[in-house]
Write a structure and sequence with these properties.
This protein is an all-beta fold and about 120 residues long. It is about 0% helix and about 50% strand. The chain contains no helices and twelve strands. A hairpin with a 2-residue loop joins β10 and β11. The protein is globular. The protein starts with a strand and ends with a strand.
Amino acid sequence: VQLVESGGDLVQPGGSLRLSCAASGFTFSSSSWTWARQVPGKGLEWVCSIYNDGSTSYADTVKGRFTISRDNAKNTVYLQMNSLKPEDTAVYYCGDGEVVGGTAFGSWGQGTQVTVSS
C-alpha cells in the first residue's frame, strides 16, 4: 500500500493551495480518508476526514476554509485550502486511519510541506 502527497508550496497569507494524495494498494472507494498536519515539536493534528459515504468533517481551525474531496476513479484525495494563515504552516499528511492524541494509526504518506508566509 502506498500514499503519496503532493502540492505543498510556499504561499502568502490569504492565498490558496490544493494538496493531492494518490493512493495505491487500497480498496479506495470503500475507505475513509484523513488529512492531518504536524508542526515541528508538536503532535500530529487532525485536520479533516472524508468518509466512504462522501460525508466530511473538519477541525474548527480549518472549517469554512478547507475542503476535502475524493475522486474514486483516480484513487486520489484532495485538500483545497483557501484563506491560508501563517498558523497553517505544517507538513500535511494523508492517511486511511485515525489521529488519536497526536498519534496516527493506519497507513500514511510521507507528507508535503505547506508554508504560509509573506
